[in-house]
């Protein structure tokens, strides 16, 4: 069974996308609030902590940074050594990653936001999963924009996304993480910190 990892701050279109993936034979794996939203809608979902064997911890700071997640994303399907390493280590392959990142820019735009709120809205696991999926775009579909959900679902009705579509999604995913990091750097650059 194909596996999709869904972890989104922007839940626009999430339920329809998840239903579409499930109808196309995907097992759904998710984190915290996304998993709760899927379960509340009656969708079967496996929590990331059930995959990794570790609970989400430190107020959600640590949840997806684990070999059982990143190995599943980064394993090259054409590389026998990668597939053997996955098999030996009990790593389930992940075929689709739909992630959008903590709303740092929105938090920064709020004049009442505290320094600690800014820091807690710096996503770590999300960009790591996005970058891993983009790196392995030949085997893993990466989606960072809910506007792409319908096209991705439509492509799955045929032979799956074309190589060009996969590469385009990967490029846009890397642009997304680059813009995210640039925003964080710009905001933090304007802060004087002398604690």
The secondary-structure class comes to alpha/beta
What characteristic shape results from the CA principal axes? globular
Instruction: Report how far the terminal alpha carbons are from each other.
Output: 51 Å
Helix share of residues?
Answer: 40-55%
**Quick check: average pLDDT?**
89
Strand order of the largest sheet: 3-2-1-4-5
Strand percent estimate: 5-15%
What's the count of strands? 5
Alpha-carbon Rg, integer: 17 Å
Sequence of secondary-structure elements? EHEHEHHHEHHHEHH
Secondary structure tally, helices: 10
Low-confidence stretches: none
- What characterizes the major β-sheet? 5 strands, parallel
Structure commentary:
The chain is α/β, with parallel strands linked by helices and 195 residues long. It is built from ten helices and five strands. Strands 3-2-1-4-5 form a five-stranded parallel beta sheet, with helices on both faces. Helix 1 links the parallel strand 1 and strand 2 (26-30). Helix 4 (67-74) runs parallel beside helix 8 and helix 8 (125-135) runs antiparallel to helix 10. The N and C termini lie far apart (51 Å). The mean pLDDT is 89.
